[in-house]
Structures are given as C-alpha cells and as structure tokens.
Hints:
- The structure holds 2 protein chains of 2 kinds.
- By secondary structure, chain A is an alpha/beta fold.
- Chain A has a single domain (about 5-250), classed as Rossmann fold (3-Layer(aba) Sandwich).
- Chain A is built from 9 helices and 9 strands.
- Chain A starts with a helix and ends with a helix.
- Chain B has one domain (about 60-245): MetI-like (MetI-like fold, Orthogonal Bundle).
- By secondary structure, chain B is an all-alpha fold.
- Chain B contains 12 helices and no strands.
- Classes of the chains: A alpha/beta, B mainly alpha.
- At the A-B interface, strand 5 and helix 4 of A face helix 8 and helix 9 of B.
Amino acid sequence: MPAKGVMDTTLQAPFISAPASIEIERVTRRFGAVTALEGLSLRAAEHEVVCVVGPSGCGKSTLLELVCGLQAPDAGTVAGAPAVYMPQRDLLMPWWGALDNAALPLRVAGQSPAAAREHARPLFAELGLAGFERARPDALSGGMRQRVAFLRTLLSGKPVLALDEPFAALDALTRAEVQRWLEQALERAPRTVLLVTHDVEEAVVLGDRVVVLSPRPGRVVAELAVELPRPRRRTDPAVGALRERALAALGVTA
Amino acid sequence: MKLRILLPALLFAALLGAWELYARLGPLDPLILPAPDQIGSSLWHDRGLLWDNLAVTGREVLLGILVAVAAGVGCAIAIHLSTTLRRGVYPLLIASQTLPIVIVAPLLVAWFGYDIAPKLAIVALICFFPVTVTTLDALASVDPGAVKLLRTLDASRWQVFRFLEAPAALPGLLSGTKIAVAVAVIGAVLAEQAGSSDGLGHLLLQAIPQLETPRAYAAVVLLSALALLLFGALSLAERLAVPWAPRTKRRNA
Lengths: 254, 253
C-alpha cells in the first residue's frame, strides 16, 4: 500500500511528539448558579477512544471545551496534549471546495493555498473523497460533509480529537457508514479521541472505553471497558449487553 | 422564464398606456404632467444635454458609493472588533441617519464649494449606513462553533477574520450596497440642488421654472435607469462573487 508512507509523513512526523494522553482531575465548572460539572475525573491513554455518554445538559460539551482549552475549570486540573475541537455540525466554509475545507488547519499553520492543498490531497484521496476536491459543501451529502470535517480535524495534526456528537445530524444509515469510516481513518492515523454522544450504542460500537455521566452536575457514574474486536456490529449480543449496562448506569430501564 | 419577463413588460406597457391616456385626455396641463411620448421625444432631442449631465451625476453616484462602501466596511469592522466602539459609535451612526440632508447639504457646499467633494460627502453620508449595518450583521452572525474550531486550530484573531468572518460578511456587504445604490441617486440629486452648475439634479432645478417639464421627466427617467443599471451590476457581481449565498441559489433554481 504505497499511500501508507505518504500518510505517515503527512500526519505523524512533523506534528505529533508528546505523549497524547488526557488527564482530568476532580474538575468543577460552574456557570453562575448552575454547576455543569462537579468533581469529574477522567483519563484517556494515548490512542484510546473514550466515549462519554450522558443525559442532555450534563456538561458534555463543557467537558470537551475544557479539554480544548476553550474554557478553564473553576476547580481541579485539566492536563494533556493539544486537542482540536470538532463541533456537532460540520461547519465547513460554504465558499470553499471540499479539499480547501479539509486543508484549513494547514492554511492556519501558514501554508499557501497551493501547498496546503498538496499536503491534504493524499489523505483526502485515501479516505475515499477523491473526485470531490472542488465540490462546495452545498453540493455534498451530509455524510460526505462530515467526512471532510473529520479530515480537517485529522489534518490539524493535534494528537487529541474532541468530537462533540459528530454523528447526531446524520440519518441512521449514513451514521453507521461514517462511523465505520472513522474507525478506518483512526486505524490509519491513530489519535486519542474523546467523543461525547447521547447515543449509548454508538459509544459501545466506537469506544475502547465508555464513560457514563450523571445528570447535571455531571460526574462519572460508570466506566465500561469495551474489549470487543473491531469492527463491531450493532447486532452483536456482546454489544447489546454493554449497551444495557450503560443504559442501566444512566438510570434507563428498558 | 418567459412569463417572468413578459409579465412585468406587460404591466409596464399598461401603466405607460394609462399614463399617456390620462395626460392627453385628463384635466391636467401638460406642463404639470407631460405624456410619455413627450418625455420620449425630450430624451431624444435633448440627448446631448442629458447625456453630459448624466455623466456628471453618474460619476458622483459611483464615487460616492465607493466612499460609502469603504467607510461602511471600515466602520463595520471597527465596531465588530471593539465592544467600546459598538457602545460608543453605533448610536452616533444611527443618529447620523436622522440628519435631514436638506439641512446638511448647504453646509457642506459652504465648506467644500461647488466642487464634487460635497456631493461625494452627501452620497456617502446616505449610503454608508445600510452598508455598515448589513456588513456588521453578517460579521456578527458567524457561527460561534466555527470560531471555536478555528481557535483550537490555534488561529490568530486576524486568521479568524480572514478565513471566516470576511468571506461570511461578503453577501451582507453586497446586499447593503444594493440598498445603497437606490438611495445614492436621490442623494446626488439633493446634493446638486444644494449647489452645483451641472448634473441631472441641477438640470431638474432649471427645467421646471423654464417650463421644460418633459425634460425634467426625461432626467428622472435617466436617474431611474442609472439606479437600475447599478443594481443590476451589483446583482451580477453577487452571483459571481458569492455563488454559495442561499439567495443566489434560490434565484437560479
């Protein structure tokens, strides 16, 4: 696979050096009278995919913003490698083609438009987007837009990805397809991933570990290790069993 | 498609016909309301005079809009970047729009003379406001999630502006400029009437006491045509420069 070599140089050599772990210790975050997170501790080892599930408003997005340095905790510590934030909506620039959108981090790093495009092109093609280089976001399907947004996140070269409900806006079929695609992308370009979602099944299918948060103020109520081979199927009974355990931790009984 | 052209054309012809009939058969003196054919004949016979004055007014309108766009974009960016300015300057901008041009125009003429400068100042004074407001709104309506994304990519404030806010503001800027061209023509006419020796506004001022009413109406026709032409040019620019904007997409669909 000749493209593998290209990927290694593009994605790993110049950017990633420090160990890519995250350590969150007894973090509390308040907004006025509202406590979003209280005494939350969470760790992610290098290249581990940690999925955080919790009820709406449990501070999942706050957690990601803390990891990305977009907010500071009121108490406790957040330590870890640099993280890039990927919001729920793809937020592609409507005036750019797909390749230029994917190459945004390289432009921000100071590369010329042409150089950024050339550096992004091999991975763009390898992750199945070839032929869509010039397509503007409004000409792409939701699934394709989300792939371009992921690629943009990967090309930031940051060792930690903070993904905020990245599949929530997709229909069920597309969601499964893009989830599989993300697994393959992470296999080729490993990253430490913190993914928040309200979809327990998604967390079990994608995560090495599933962390369950309580309703606000958010704190960890359960941690489940998912030691199943990949790719995982939703219909796998072992997936179903873990899903039931996570749902029970959330207080949902089917 | 055909209907889209045919319908307004028919409506226009019907209005013109009604006007012609009313002007010829109605109670009004043709010195007060000339018929369309008289205006048409003035357009032809006075073409040299009208053209020379149109060139003067057209130049004032174009340059005035350029000044207004520069000032409007400058104001919008400054206000967008600074909360202090937003609080301090924005109310003044709104207040500036309540100044009756009729009062200000003679003052500007007294300061700058019969030159083009007071005309540009008046056109710009009227036009910069819609440009500022639409550009500012477009700058402010950028998705906060996109700003967060850029910040985690370690983008500087300037890069956030360059990669996100500036392109996002372009459709707003163009809409504001489209509003501005319509009022720019009125501004130029008012400015010329406050003190000038040429231009269509000056021509209007002279034509009416000279009882050359058809010529005055011909000047108005040309002023409308000027505004329509500028508006059309801007719509075209919009289609070319911001093809991603939803408005353009709907129009093409």
